[in-house]
Amino acid sequence: MPCEADGEGPHLMRPDEHSGRTLAYLGDAVWSLKAREYLIEKGYGTGRQLQAKTIHLVSAKAQAKVYDALHEEGWFTEQEEELFHRGRNDNAGSVPNHTDVLTYRRSTGFEAVIGWLRLEQNDARIDEIFRRAVEITGVL
Predict the structure, then answer these.
(1) Where do runs of H (alpha helix) occur along the chain?
(2) Is residue 26 one of the residues assigned to a domain?
(3) What is the pTM of this model?
(4) Segment-wise mean pLDDT, segments of 10 residues, the chain, 140 residues
């Protein structure tokens, strides 16, 4: 992969060339920022309030719950489902102590979808998913 030091500038990979784990890494950041912006817009101003509400949208359990509900509704496109499986099946190596492996993998798959959508610059679709996530999780 050429870098700027080569004089060729950075090589931008297409979204479908990234591993599921890389997509999940980006998706995690995008989803977290989306949740934080939403909560601040809703007037949750203290750090303690923000943190507590953020967990209801950003935790592995919350993301797995959102994915499960939307999947059950047939809400994801075929391509999004493929990306979910790619992210879910990409071995992250370690799982946080506060969640089980299956929940963590589903949340990783969900984050991979969000990361891919961001690289595709499909923020409108991320917004749709986020609006449904707020309804599913009951975070208002």
Answers:
(1) 20-41, 47-58, 60-72, 78-89, 101-119, 123-137
(2) yes
(3) 0.84
(4) 48 68 94 93 81 88 96 95 88 70 93 95 96 89
- Asked, for residue 79, whether it belongs to a domain, the answer is yes
Q: Are 133 and 76 in contact (CB under 8 A)?
A: no
Show contacts of 128-132: CB within 8 Å, 24+ apart: 129/66, 129/70, 130/31, 130/34, 130/35, 130/38, 132/66, 132/69, 132/70, 132/75
What is the predicted pLDDT for the residue at 45? 73
133: left (phi over 0), alpha (psi -120 to 50) or beta: alpha
Residue of 6, 16, 28, 127 marked catalytic:
28
Domain annotation covers residue 10:
no
Q: What is the pLDDT of residue 5?
A: 47
Query: Residue 8: its pLDDT value, please?
Result: 56
Does the annotation count 6 as an active-site position? no
